[in-house]
Amino acid sequence: MGIEIVQLTSEAERSAGREAYEARRRDGSILWKVDLDFGDMSSSAFREAAIWADAGVAAIGGGSVVLLLDLSSGEEKRRICVPSCFGSLSLQRVEGAEWLFVLGWTDVHAFTPDLKEQWVSRDLAVDGIVGGTVEGSVLHVHAEMDPPGGWFSVQLDVRTGRELAREPAFTEE
């Protein structure tokens, strides 16, 4: 694709609740620059940006939102509210198309390349969800249930978000 998303904001500016990002071409030229507001939980430390080529957007997450910005203009195409607070992004192939999985502290949100929400699986964790890899028809995540360290491997149906299996991820020896 040849585009990268760069965060320009200092820690002081970030604590004020607004952050600047720009899209740069491979040659270093700036395609666009935007100032973003990450909502009520903007003080949360988690930030991530990804190029979602199949959808033609940059996904930038932080605080309580993920913003989907048009790759060519930086125009906001969709604002995804993440009430459980943003954690990370995962772009995965599902039946030939790249889907976006938004991993929050307690929930997982799934989006198709037309920017439509396919499903939300709520209350999978109490303090964080990581991973987000697809194998066949299963989305694999790790969910923290009993902080610190009470991690579980959780399998979700990639098309519906229905929980298929859950088991402890680490054994105490």
Task: Describe the structure in your own words.
The chain has 173 residues and is mostly beta strands. The protein has one domain: YVTN repeat-like/Quinoprotein amine dehydrogenase (Methylamine Dehydrogenase, Chain H, 7 Propeller), CATH 2.130.10.10. It is built from 1 helix and 15 strands. A 4-stranded antiparallel beta sheet has the order 4-5-6-7, with no helix packed on it. It has a 4-stranded antiparallel beta sheet with strand order 8-9-10-11, with no helix packed on it. A hairpin with a 3-residue loop joins strand 9 and strand 10. 30% of the residues are buried.
**Straight-line N-to-C gap:** 46 Å
User: Whole-number average pLDDT?
Assistant: 92
- The CATH class is identified as Mainly Beta
By CATH, the superfamily comes out as YVTN repeat-like/Quinoprotein amine dehydrogenase
Using DSSP, what is the number of strands? 15
Number of domains: 1
Give the C-alpha Rg: 17 Å
Helix-strand sequence? EHEEEEEEEEEEEEEE
- Low-confidence segments, ≥5 residues, pLDDT <50? none
* Strand order across the largest sheet: 4-5-6-7
Structural class: mainly beta
Major sheet characteristics: 4 strands, antiparallel
The third-level CATH topology is Methylamine Dehydrogenase, Chain H
Question: How large is the share of residues in beta strands?
Answer: over 45%
